[in-house]
Design goal:
Blueprint (H helix, E strand, L loop, with lengths): L1 H91 L1
């Protein structure tokens, strides 16, 4: 009976040690998981901000390109009109 009590006591101590070790490991894993989730949220936020900034810059570049195209078209029309006027004057002489 004393051997059985000693064996049960050892098994109980081992079980308690395992419970403490695994509980600590679970706590460490949860802390690591929380840290990774926080970093993921920060990264997602930074990526969204960068995407929004890129979209804004793209819109600005597109607007500038459209303005430049409109100005070039206006200059071309002026040049064509001046060329037509010169051609008409040359034909009249």
């Amino acid at each position: 009976m004393k051997k059985l009590s000693a064996i049960l006591a050892v098994v109980a101590v081992v079980a308690i040690v395992f419970a403490v070790v695994f509980g600590t490991q679970k706590g460490n894993l949860q802390t690591n998981l929380d840290s990774v989730n926080q970093k993921l949220a920060e990264t997602e936020s930074a990526a969204k901000t960068a995407a929004d900034q890129a979209a804004t810059k793209l819109a600005e570049v597109e607007a500038a390109a459209q303005t430049a195209a409109d100005e070039a078209a206006a200059k071309l029309a002026e040049t064509e009109a001046a060329a037509q006027t010169a051609a008409d004057e040359a034909a009249a002489k």
